[in-house]
Amino acid sequence: MTRNNVNDSAAGNTACGASGSSRMTSRLQDTMIENSLRKIRHTLIFMSGKGGVGKSSMSANIAVALAQRKLRVGLMDVDLHGPSLAGMMGVEGLLEITGDRFAIPKPFNQNLGVVSMQSLMPEPDQAVIWQGPAKTGVIRQFIADVQWGELDFLIVDAPPGTGDEPLSVAQTVPDAKAVIVTTPQDVALSDVRKSIGFCRVVHLEILGLVENMGPFPCPCCGKRIEIFKHGGGEITALQMGIPFLGTVPFDPQVVEASDSGIPAFGGAAFASFSEAITRCVDRILGGLSDA
Ligand SMILES: Nc1ncnc2c1ncn2[C@@H]1O[C@H](COP(=O)(O)OP(=O)(O)OP(=O)(O)O)[C@@H](O)[C@H]1O
Ligand SMILES: [Mg+2]
Question: What is the pTM of this model?
């Protein structure tokens, strides 16, 4: 099965089901998507089987680390029901729209722009109540109707699980690659295996696995603390035959940083965390043939 097959059936876009005008609109959107993707060198989707393991934190901090290397980066939040990237990146307000109706990513810095559902909602606490096809439509618009420009990396933050959002990204961006995020404990790792299975079914190449919230030294006595155990990510990656991108330690101050809209990477107080993110970025770049 090709990704396009999946696309057609999942989005209900079969030729016999679509009216003439909706077929034309969809073709026009296909062209706009192709135009956007032509300018994007790599798309990485951060996903996990389990919620709360740090997909948004890893995608945000890795995006910042890539941008610091003078790479042009877009950060796209497809967690449509629970967007958190705008808050974590400290970008506020609604997206601006150009005269020819393209949305402009919210600039985090010169090399990094952010698009999140949060930046499209006039009411921040408004709930998004959408089913599959509507979500696919918005994700396609996030590519077609956003002025991403020339990008080295489009980093996509997905909600947990193997539902509409990662599927829509896999269908819309044929050469997207997955970065799977997990914590080291067994319950998260069993969900990782489902994510790996999902990627294999939809032909989404897996760039590797990041183990987040790994061991860290106690801030008071320096004793090693393993909140979620340790090492499970690397063992799972080995067992499942995918690259291991590294362990990022738990750091209590990271919670504070992300709540205040300042990604921890590069901050003076986050040396171990930043070193770990740097190692992951090195391995990500090493895993791409033309990075
Ligand atoms: N290495 C870390 N050390 C300490 N706290 C962390 C770390 N990584 C993430 N966190 C915190 O854990 C919480 C969950 O992280 P995050 O929102 O990134 O997870 P998620 O997988 O994106 O969640 P969801 O499934 O809800 O989208 C946040 O409060 C975040 O600040
Ligand atoms: Mg998240």
Answer: 0.92
